[in-house]
Design a protein that fits this description.
eight-stranded mixed sheet; 6 helices; 32% strand; alpha+beta; two-stranded antiparallel sheet; 24% helix; 249 residues; elongated
């Protein structure tokens, strides 16, 4: 049995696709591309697909990951092309590697997010960021199925800063359904994957709490990367790199 790990994106309007909607679209793509999937046992067999840490509905992403199990060996690059052609534009399979190590989910310990705040002056955003970083605790609230939950969002935030321009490409920026010719503040956020999970909207709530920063329109949020957080360099590493470096079994 061969295992293949894929990196895929959610761009433009497809960022509003829920994880369940993506699962359905991806399973249709598997059938359309005639991928020799391995199936689970039992009365209701389903394709062996493992999803890891999906981005919240409404956020874009350049770094979503999943793993599939095949009954026959396939070339990962050719498989990537077939699957990408079988998915709608915006849900793009951008990388495929054969799984040669264990624990992909264990290597997703942090994310890099970009928050585009249209209508917010960069100086005001910088002051709010400084107040957030200086705070010992930033309590925020989130509505859950069990009611309103209050928690401290500050410990999970490794870094938060304003940047001059987005590192995403011009194409991806235009696909975010946001005007690009008006002043705006762009924040770069690195957050650890902890429990409870601290999401970009929690950080925005924290900025509102500590500095009364309230964008006039919803923020355009994109995950730029996720992977293992390197304590020495303060960077988020590529989770597929160990599989590439391992070489053929």
């Amino acid at each position: 049995m061969q295992r293949v790990r894929l990196r895929y994106t959610k761009r433009g309007r497809l960022r509003f696709t829920s994880h369940r909607d993506f699962q359905r679209a991806f399973e249709r793509a598997l059938r359309r591309a005639e991928v020799p999937m391995a199936y689970s046992a039992g009365f209701t067999p389903h394709p062996k697909v493992s999803y890891a840490n999906a981005a919240p509905t409404g956020t874009g992403s350049e770094a979503e990951y999943l793993e599939i199990a095949l009954t026959d060996t396939r070339d990962p690059d050719k498989l990537r092309i077939l699957l990408d052609e079988s998915l709608p534009p915006g849900l793009d399979i951008v990388e495929a590697v054969e799984a040669r190590t264990s624990g992909l989910a264990d290597r997703l310990t942090a994310s890099v997010w970009e928050l585009r705040l249209d209508g917010v002056d960069r100086a005001d955003a910088a002051r709010a960021v400084a107040a957030f970083i200086a705070a010992e605790a930033v309590e925020v609230q989130r509505l859950t199925k069990n009611g309103v939950r209050t928690f401290d969002a500050r410990p999970a935030v490794v870094s938060l800063e304003t940047v001059v321009s987005p590192e995403t490409t011009e194409e991806h920026t235009s696909q975010a359904d946001r005007p690009t010719d008006q002043p705006c503040a762009i924040l770069r956020l690195v957050v650890r994957h902890v429990t409870p999970a601290v999401r970009p909207d929690d950080v925005l709530s924290g900025l509102r709490a500590v500095a009364d920063l309230a964008p006039p329109v919803p923020a355009a949020v994109t995950r730029l990367a996720q992977g293992l957080f390197d304590e020495e360099t303060g960077t988020v590493t590529d989770p597929l790199a160990p599989d590439r470096e391992a070489g053929p079994a």
